[in-house]
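Format notes (please read before filing issues)

Several people have asked whether sequences and C-alpha cells are stored in separate files. They are not. Every record keeps both together, in the order shown below: the sequence lines, then the C-alpha cell lines. Line labels are part of the format and must not be stripped during preprocessing.
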Amino acid sequence: MSKAIGMIDTPLNKKKIAQFEDEGVKVLKFPQAIIERVADCEPLLEIARDLSRFDWIIFTDIHTADIFLEIIQENDLDLFELDDLVVCALGEAVVDRLRFMQVHSDVIPASKDDETVLSTIENYVSVSDEFHGAKVLFLKRQDLDLSVGAKLLCIVGELVKLDVYKTDALSTVERARITTLLQSGAIDEFVFCSPDDVESLSQIVYPKSLREILGGISISATDPITFQTLREQSLKPQLANRS
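Then the structure lines:
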C-alpha cells in the first residue's frame, strides 16, 4: 500500500505535489485559505494615520503583518512610525514579513500559547506597571476572538482590537469532512511548504487546534521558517529537505 501524504493545494506547491505523485506517493490535497482584506478598510487607515497614540502593536499572524503594512505603503504613510512602538510579533514567520519591510520586532514569543505570549511580554517590560498603563493595538483576523486578546484586555491601559482580514469560509459540511479525513488515519504524513500552508490548515480546522487534529500524523516542514512556525503551534515537525 502506497504512502499517503497531505498537502495544501497552492500554485507554489504544484511542483512538489507532482514530484510526489511521480514517485508513486498518494497526495491528498487540502484547500488554500483565501485571504481578503476586511470589507471596510477605513478603520485600518484611520489607525495607520494615528499610530503615535499607541505604545505597543501586536501582529497576531503573517496576514495581519502583510495587509497592515500594505495599507501604510499604499497611502504613503510613514512606515517608520512603527519604530516608536514596541512591536510584538507572534511567530518567526511574522518577524520575517516585518523584517522584509525593514520593521524591527522587539518581542517574539517562542510559542503562540497564551501563557508564553504573556510571560514573554512581562519579561520584556522592565517596570511591572509599565505594560499595565500601555495603549496596545491588537491586529487580528475578522471573527477570530483570540483568548490572549481577552487576557490582555484585563491588564493593559487600553486595547484596540482591529480586524485586518477575513478568510473565504468553507461550509460547515466541508470543514467537518476535512477534519474527519485528517483524523481517520488515511494520511501518513502532512507536508507543509510555507508558513502560509500552516495558516491555511489552522484556519480550516478552527476552532480546533492543529495539535488536536494532527495527532498521530507525521509532520514535515520543507524549510526552517515553516519548521519553526509548526513548533509555535505546539507541534513536533521534522525538517525534510525536499527540493
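For reference, the curators noted about this record: The first strand starts at residue 4 and ends at 8. The CA atoms of residues 170 and 204 lie 7 Å apart.
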